[in-house]
Structure formats: C-alpha cells, structure tokens
Amino acid sequence: MTRFAGILAKVAVCFFGGFVGAIGVLVVSHTLGLIGIPALFGAKAFPLEMQLLQNFSWGGAMWGFLAAALLIVVKKRVFMISLVTMIVAVTYGLFVLGRLPVMLTPAIVFTYLVNLVYSVILALAIRYSGVAK
Predict the structure, then answer these.
(1) How many C-beta atoms lie closer than 10 Å to residue 75's C-beta?
(2) Is the pTM of this model over 0.85?
C-alpha cells in the first residue's frame, strides 16, 4: 500500500467510524429522551430533525477527519484518539457554538456521557479496520 493510499484509507475509516458513531449517539440520546433521562440531569432532548443534521454532518465529516489527522500523527493510540476527538467535538459544540459558560453542570456532564458512544464506535471502527498498524 502506498503512503497516499494508507492516508486515504485512514481518512475513509475515520469518516465512516464518525458517521456510524453519530448514528449511535442519535439512537442513544433519542432513546434516553423518550424515557425522560435528560430531564433528570436538567438537559432537554433535542428534536430528532435537529439531531440528524448535527450528528451526521459534524460527527461523520468534521470530527471524523480530525480523528484521521490524529491517527496519521499518533499511530497506535486508537482509544485515546477517539476520546480526544469526542472531547474536542462536544466542547466545541457546547461552549463555542452554544456560547455556554465554561462550567460543568449536570446537563453538560450528561452530554459528554452520551457522546462516549461516539468515542467507542469510532475507536472500534479504527481498531477493527486494521489501519492503526
């Protein structure tokens, strides 16, 4: 495999892992919203249409590419890469786009916990694809 093909494979796998991770976050957060768990943390459930757009466009595209860039630089730390990607993505979404004050409320902790699904799915996609050798 040439160097370019290896980089392209890492980008493709991370994009796919980010996209599937976004689907996982969507399913988990929607299910928890139906049960009423977000209200226990003081968070509100987002409308499904808004979640679809945000999760798929940001989760697959932008944050999957960040994971690919980290994977190219740091080779075998798959779970660390996926965790850093998730933390950066959620922090950016909450505090930069959402313009929330930087403090850890129960609702923000709940958001990080739900997004751990993204981190696990992305790490498994990278690990089992074999591009992290």
Answers:
(1) 11
(2) no
**Phi and psi, residue 46, nearest 5°:** -80, 150
Alpha-carbon separation of residue 12 from 19, 45, 69 (angstroms): 10, 31, 11
Identity of the amino acid at 115: N
DSSP letters spanning 104-120: --HHHHHHHHHTHHHHH
Structure tokens at 25: 């976050």
Chain centroid to Cα 87, Å, comes to 8
Tell me the two tokens of residue 71: 């994977």
**Measured between alpha carbons, how far is residue 110 from residues 24, 97, 103 in Å?**
16, 18, 13
Cα(105)–Cα(57) distance, integer angstroms: 26
* C-alpha–C-alpha distance, residues 21 and 7, integer Å: 21
| Structure token digits, residue 125 | 């996609």
Q: Which two tokens stand for residue 115?
A: 């997004």
**Is pLDDT larger for residue 93 or for residue 25?**
25
Summarised one tens digit per residue, pLDDT across range 54-110 is 666 666 667 777 888 888 777 778 888 888 888 888 888 777 776 677 777 888 888
